[in-house]
Amino acid sequence: MSSGHILHLEDVFKGYSGKTILRDIDLAISEGEFCSVVGPSGCGKSTLLRLILGQETPDSGAIYLEGKMIGTPDPRRGVVYQKYSLFPHLTVLENVMLGPSYLGLYGNKFASKNEIREKAMYYLERVRLTNAADKYPHELSGGMQQRAAIAQTLIVHPKVLLMDEPFGALDPDTREQLQVFLLELWESMNLTIMFITHSLEEACFVGSRLLALSQYYDSGETQFAHGATVVEDHALKRVAHSTEIKHSPEFQDLIHSVKASAFDPELNQQIAQFNLTHPDSFRT
Ligand SMILES: Nc1ncnc2c1ncn2[C@@H]1O[C@H](COP(=O)(O)OP(=O)(O)OP(=O)(O)O)[C@@H](O)[C@H]1O
Ligand SMILES: [Mg+2]
Question: How far is residue 225 from each of residues 16, 57, 64, 221, measured CA to CA in Å?
Answer without folding.
Answer: 12, 20, 27, 8
